Amino acid sequence: FFSKLAMAMTQVFEELCDKHQLPTGVTFKYGTAGFRTDASTLDGVVFRVGILAALRAQCLGQNVGVCITASHNASKDNGVKIVDGSGEMLEGS
């Protein structure tokens, strides 16, 4: 049962990743502002950050948040970051 469930979940995850692809030729870096770049390139990043936050919350048994940021700079300058239950931003590696 569990192997069939895992296979089904893997298939669903792969299909969702195909829907929310990362753009080619764009390098994303996680810094003090999270992933910050032109909003038109963030769909795939936001999807993956949401999955990572859910897995982190499940593994750690604590609240984890996702923050979508909008900048006071140019309207294209937006981002997404992961926030732990304490309100602290997840550090980059």
Please specify the SSE layout and strand pairing.
Blueprint: H1 2-19, E1 30-31, E2 34-38, H2 43-60, E3 64-70, E4 77-84
Antiparallel strand pairs: 1-2, 2-4, 3-4
Can you describe this structure in just a few lines?
The chain has 93 residues and is α+β, with helices and mostly antiparallel strands. It has helices spanning 2-19, 43-60, and strands at residues 30-31, 34-38, 64-70, 77-84.
Protein described:
By secondary structure, the chain is α+β, with helices and mostly antiparallel strands. It is built from 2 helices and 4 strands; from the N terminus they run H-E-E-H-E-E. The chain has helices at residues 2-19, 43-60; strands spanning 30-31, 34-38, 64-70, 77-84. Strand 3 (64-70) and strand 4 form a beta hairpin. The radius of gyration is 15 Å and the shape is flat. The model has no long low-confidence stretch (mean pLDDT 86).
Helical fraction: 25-40%
User: Cα-atom Rg, whole angstroms?
Assistant: 15 Å
- Number of H- or I-type helical stretches: 2
Distance between the termini: 36 Å
* Strand arrangement in the largest pleated sheet: 1-2-4-3
